[in-house]
Specification:
Blueprint: E1 8-16, E2 20-24, E3 30-33, E4 39-46, H1 50-63, E5 70-73, H2 88-95, E6 110-113, E7 123-127, E8 140-143, E9 146-155, E10 160-166, E11 178-180, E12 184-189, E13 208-213
Antiparallel strand pairs: 1-4, 2-3, 4-13, 5-12, 6-7, 6-11, 7-10, 8-9, 9-10, 12-13
């Protein structure tokens, strides 16, 4: 999704563990049954000026409601805002959020996997070769459009960090694989009519839209 269409007034990313209600045990505790794969969900409140209303409308039409799949950057400036950390020189080295003169492309900033990790791993080791960038607890990162949340950060010297993650890796990664420090994922809308771009006399649209992760690849 073009980054300029994601001008947000409210952001909420989380993991839906999709647990099913269980029964109370004799110890007065509730047992929760997990029989479905968890997935990421998101809720965004957007602000579109006149120049963006038509483009947003066309994007929704092209997606055809729940039939479409959106590749979303999981922007999360309240936890990790790379724009505040990058100097002009660092941005020139390829760590900018958008390609020059393009609202359509999204790249980085990125790290690399410092070692291979198998599917199901709850820790990964990454290397960030650009000074001034460091992972933080609560940040959402991704590998090959599989998002993961950072639960712990252990600096290991130089530019290497050991990260605790949730959800555990859902696909293996190899040493040298790209790890996006602003996570990306593949999402679908929950409702066919989500994100309708109504507006009033001031020609400003404030659509709200909810997404859920697409798990089939």
């Amino acid at each position: 999704m073009p980054l300029d269409l994601l001008e947000t007034s409210s952001i909420d990313w989380d993991i839906d563990w999709r647990g099913q209600p269980g029964t109370e045990s004799t110890a007065d505790t509730t047992q929760v049954v997990f029989n479905r794969f968890p997935r990421w969900v998101g809720s965004l409140s957007l602000t579109h000026t006149r120049e963006l209303i038509g483009r947003w409308r066309a994007l929704r039409w092209s997606a055809q409601g729940r039939a479409g799949i959106y590749q979303l950057p999981m922007i999360d400036p309240g936890v990790f805002n790379p724009l505040k950390m990058l100097t002009d020189q660092q941005a020139a080295l390829g760590n900018q959020l958008t390609l020059p003169n393009s609202a359509e492309a999204y790249i980085g900033p990125v790290a690399v996997a410092a070692e291979a990790a198998a599917a199901g791993a709850s820790q990964i080791r990454i290397s960030i070769p650009v000074m001034g960038l460091a992972p933080v607890v609560g940040q959402i990162i991704s590998a090959d459009d599989w998002p993961m949340g950072i639960t712990s950060v252990t600096p290991e010297g130089m530019d290497t960090y050991l990260l605790g993650i949730q959800m555990p890796l859902r696909a293996a990664i190899a040493s040298g694989d790209t790890i996006r420090l602003v996570g990306t994922g593949r999402f679908e809308v929950i409702d066919d009519m989500a994100g309708r771009a109504g507006y009033g006399q001031h020609l400003v649209s404030t659509p709200s839209i909810e997404f859920r992760e697409v798990l089939t690849r």
